[in-house]
Amino acid sequence: MTGYGRAVEHLGPDVAREVGNRALRVLADLLEDTDHICTFTPADAPIGDGGVQAAVNTLIADPFHAETLTPAVDWPHIVREALPARFIASWRRPQTWADGTGPRRLADGLTDWIVAHLAHLWPADADCWTVRVNESKVYENIYLDLAVRVGDRLWLLHLGVCD
Question: Which of 70, 97, 99, 139 has the most other CB atoms within 10 Å of its CB?
């Protein structure tokens, strides 16, 4: 955990969710370029009798559905690995997003801030899965869907880019 852990430890879950969600929107705005749009959204639903797969499908927009759920470990690592690097339009202005530049430091800091808020909602050892969505229709060109189980609720973190 980065130094941000202490900054959010006093927050209630609703505040952590809202602040984390706002940080995701800011990071999406920062990473958007003229030819792509970032959609970074967390959502949650109860896990009913249908189990995890059914809960994931309630959180994915129709007509899409989860084809596979692959068990994963260490959701913080998965999120940090994806954000911001997977969503940077580096082919447009690579010098802007190089390590150590102002925009890259800001994006990396926002990522740490987001992970700190999600960690307030999700235990580090929570059951999690990466989700592969059916590709029968157009879906985000670059995406990561991560499902995280916390008690009787399932969270879906969608990180995507579309042209």
Answer: 97
Q: Mean pLDDT in each 10-residue stretch from start to end of the chain (163 residues)?
A: 56 82 92 82 93 94 89 94 85 80 93 91 94 78 91 94 75
* CATH code of 72's domain: 3.40.1000
The DSSP annotation for 35-50 comes to: TBEEEEEEEEEE--TT
Which structural domain range is residue 140 located in? 4-162
What's the domain count of the chain? 1
Single pTM value for the model: 0.87
Q: Which residues of 19-57 are buried (b: 16+ CB within 10 A; e: fewer)?
A: bbbebbebbbeebeeeebebbbebebeebeeeebbebbb
Collapsing DSSP states into helix, strand and coil, what is residue 19? Answer: helix
